[in-house]
Amino acid sequence: MAADVVIRGGTVVDGSGAPGFRADVAVTGGRISEIGPRLEGPRELDAAGQVVSPGFVDIHSHYDAQVFWDPALTPSSFHGVTSVIAGNCGFSIAPCRPDDRELLARTLQHVEDMALDTLAAGIPWDFETFPEYLDSVARHGVALNYGCYIGHTALRIYVMGEDGYERELATADEIARMQAVVRDAMEAGAMGFATSSSSTHNGDRGRPVPSRLADLAEVETLLAPLHDLHKGVAALLPAEKIKHADVYGLQARIGRPLTWTALLTVKGYPWHEKIIADNDAAWSEGGQVWPQISVRPLVFQMNLREPFTFNMVPAFAELMAGSEAARLEAYGEHAWRARALDDLLHGTTFRPDWGSLDIAESPKHPELVGRLVTDLAEERGCSPLDVMLDTSLDDHLETRFRSVLANNDPEAIEWLLGRDGVLLGLADSGAHVSQLCDACFPTDVLGNWVREKEVIALEHAVHKLTGEPARVFGLDDPDGGRGRLEVGMAADITVFDPTTVAPGPLRRVRDFPADGERLTADAPSGMTHTLVNGVAIRVDGEPRPDALASKPGRVLRS
Predict the structure, then answer these.
(1) 328-to-319, 384, 415 alpha-carbon distances in Å
(2) Residue 320 pLDDT grade (very low, low, confident, very high; cuts 50, 70, 90)
(3) For a designed S-S bond to 430, which of 43, 62, 276, 445 qualifies (C-beta 3.0 to 4.6 A apart)?
């Protein structure tokens, strides 16, 4: 059978970690049909001087809602990603009863910075159960390959309603019902079960999201279907109810891969070394725990209308349950400011890095953009918090502040990139959309850490972006699977120029339903071609609208 398309003249880096080699790649019927010299086909894509690799896999996305209004899953598709896993942190949008849609939307609004108007306009809500959700995504179509966890917060709301937010201990009957829902989801193809115990995750009215109220016993019971069905991945954010030390015994008991978010670096605090030592010890005894690491500093932009991260501080958290007018009033009160400053300076939940906090955007005061809040505070003779509040009030809460929250130690990131048993993750693609954009992490890895810093070999980086995550998530079936360039596997292929690949700049756009805004990275350099199931959605550095409109992706099912 003649090939549909031949990718000619590139260096094939096949995703296994093996050295690259010069070859053509032929694609027929959506699969790789031949790899070798001088192949022929009716259509050719030039890859001379380029690297030909498997499509990249983003294991930590939040495209659960966006998939319906943006099936291209931008900006991930601009950066060579061909497969994503959504539902992370327990924030899937299914299961969800009609009466709970508003509660779930308000949860996503506060915890993941998803605008209520955008969610209302963009989600078709032609589903209730998790199997119906996967079928809905398949029916509407998607340009990339899309898998999803069933999320603990959505599950608790589905079974317990408002009580999921209010009651720590679910009843035995409620846990049994939740477990049955997880089993149904896994049988329908959920990629696993995701939950969060993180203190950063506050939802409706500033309350801890429902998964934070659950204890380890509840989580383990809900993971039992993964053990029984011998499939799926457990995804956790350990913190309050579930500690880092708990994940090893939990993983051993369920017998499935477990990944947790996230092993972020903190300059001057080498906690990552202890975590890796514990992880290596567990692996030596047969464990399969995969901490996720990030290659980018965790840089957030926020305004005081939705002060994510600051909302962990008690004085701010109490305002999240009220109206914007109530926040404005509090921000102007001396007594509230004094209490908030004390929380920020002396509290245990969150302390900002004042030395990195600057003004990113200010419509009324553009002259302040790029200025450190601490410098402005010194000039004005006030606290950094006063600078933030005064500037925000004068700018109708439109001022955006930028700060490095974590992952600020390049030497530690370099060290982690050389460790086994860790996954590249925490892109948070589709979440915090007005606050950050790390969906561009693959081009950052290749441009910054491979080419510029020479920290990691190209073949190893490609393996970390493709073959390794595909294997952990069970996507690597030799018959039509993903993550490697081998005959018979799906033709998810990315072609890039290793001498120029880079993530490009971030910019703010309003292209979501109901005029919703977001940060995007839509102009990477060096990304030449991208194929999804044999369909070229990017050619010669430009997206192909006709190919994207054909929605060549598949719903990935465990």
Answers:
(1) 10, 18, 44
(2) confident
(3) 62
Antiparallel, parallel or unpaired: β 81-86 and 145-148: parallel
Are the C-beta atoms of residues 44 and 6 closer than 8 Å to each other?
yes
Q: For residues 79 and 89, give the distance between their C-alpha atoms in angstroms, rounded to a whole number.
A: 23
What CATH number is given to the structural domain containing 26? 2.30.40.10
Q: How many C-beta atoms lie closer than 10 Å to residue 472's C-beta?
A: 19
Domain boundary among 405, 428, 463: 405
| Residues 466-503: tens digit of each pLDDT | 999 999 999 999 999 999 999 999 999 999 999 999 99
Taking alpha carbons only, the member of 133, 149, 233, 226 closest to residue 190 is 149
- The answer to whether residue 186 is domain-embedded is no
Which of these three, 381, 405, 429, is where a domain ends? 405
Is 90 domain-assigned? no
Q: Decide: helix, strand or coil at residue 20.
A: coil
Cβ–Cβ under 8 Å, residues 401 and 357: yes
Residue 1: band (very low, low, confident or very high) from pLDDT cuts 50, 70, 90: low
Give the residue from 82, 86, 142 showing the smallest Cα distance to 496. 82
**Element (H or E) spanning 360, and its range?**
strand 358-361
Assess if residue 349 is contained within a domain.
yes
- Ramachandran category for residue 189: left, alpha or beta (phi over 0 → left; psi -120 to 50 → alpha): left
Residue 543 structural domain = 1-54+449-502+521-551
- Copy the structure tokens of residue 488: 């018979």
Q: Are residues 329 and 396 in the same domain?
A: yes
362's tokens: 């200010």
The predicted structure's pLDDT at residue 120:
98
pTM: 0.96
Q: Per the structure, how many domains does the chain have?
A: 2
CA proximity to 58, closest of 520, 524, 438? 438
Cα maximum dimension of the chain: 77
d(CA 462, CA 485): 11
User: What is the model's pLDDT at position 312?
Assistant: 82
State whether residue 65 is helix, strand or coil.
coil
Does 421 fall in a domain? Answer: no
Task: In whole angstroms, give the CA distance from residue 467 to residue 472.
Answer: 9
CB–CB of 513/502 below 8 Å? Answer: no
